[in-house]
Design brief:
The chain has 240 residues and is an alpha/beta fold. The chain is 40% helix and 13% strand. The chain has eight helices and seven strands; from the N terminus they run βααβββααααβαββα. The strands form two sheets. Strands 1-2-3-4 form a four-stranded mixed β-sheet. Strands 5-7-6 form a three-stranded antiparallel β-sheet, with helices on one face. α6 packs parallel to α8. The longest helix is centred in the middle third of the chain and has 21 residues. The N and C termini lie far apart (47 Å).
Length: 240
């Protein structure tokens, strides 16, 4: 069994998730695709068993490369399983051998994306040059500034509790009377800025604004909030 969560709510209450996973003898899996590099993550201290991420968000590397890390408990679970995965492409034991993690003779599994790895190496070098703590601070400060600018426009943040807000992606409640698609289209067509709507239960309810990596600046906050101001002035609004 596995508990899965994203860092936005996990990091604010990681002790609770650790207790739940221990109580039910689960592995705790955390999606850090939009958070790795932009907010503190301490896999061992937070009791995370499986952590995965992507190259294209905070790290600003080309998309297509993923990271994954396993705790000793997760590794033990994988190596003691009795059944085989549906596809060898998803067989972590086979991948671990290809990655050189099991001290066994290495077997071919796939051709690695060499150019993507060079791009990833450069992005990690830039993070190292900046300093991880400085990157966390950059995202925290840029997003705090974004929240102030959004609220000055009369917009409401969808996540009410500040402790649960991710400092890389901000969800804004779609203002009453507007169609979120009109706002997204206006911002893209007139300002060449792409924001996006919600997913799943939040579809049609929110606009999502990402401040990721090199985009997490006050200048970009000013650009996107001015674009939103213009959209609210020009997009059609239904009478309530």
């Amino acid at each position: 069994m596995m508990l899965s969560h994203s860092p936005s709510s996990f990091c604010s209450n990681d002790e609770g998730w650790k207790r739940k996973s221990h109580r039910y003898k689960c592995l705790l899996l955390v999606d850090s695709v939009a958070s790795l590099g932009g907010t503190p993550l301490y896999m061992d201290q937070q009791g995370i068993d499986i952590l995965y991420s992507g190259s294209q968000k905070v790290l600003n590397a080309p998309p297509g490369t993923s990271f994954i890390s396993f705790s000793d408990k997760a590794k033990k679970k994988m190596y003691s399983r009795k059944t085989k995965p549906f596809s060898f492409y998803l067989d972590i034991k086979w991948l671990a051998n290809f990655w050189g993690c099991d001290d066994q003779p290495r077997m071919y599994h796939h051709t690695i994306p060499v150019i993507s790895l060079y791009g990833l190496r450069e992005s990690l070098a830039l993070i190292a040059e900046q300093g991880l703590e400085n990157s966390w601070r950059q995202h925290r400060e840029a997003t705090a500034y974004l929240h102030r600018r959004l609220q000055a426009l009369g917009l409401q943040l969808f996540v009410k509790d500040p402790a649960l807000r991710l400092p890389t992606v901000t969800a804004v409640a779609v203002p009453a009377g507007y169609d979120w698609r009109d706002i997204v289209s206006y911002v893209l067509d007139h300002f060449d800025i792409q924001i996006i709507g919600g997913l799943g239960p939040s579809t049609g309810k929110v606009l999502r604004i990402g401040l990721l990596g090199r985009n997490a600046t006050r200048e970009n906050v000013d650009r996107v909030t001015e674009a939103l101001r213009a959209a609210l002035q020009h997009c059609p609004k239904k009478k309530l």
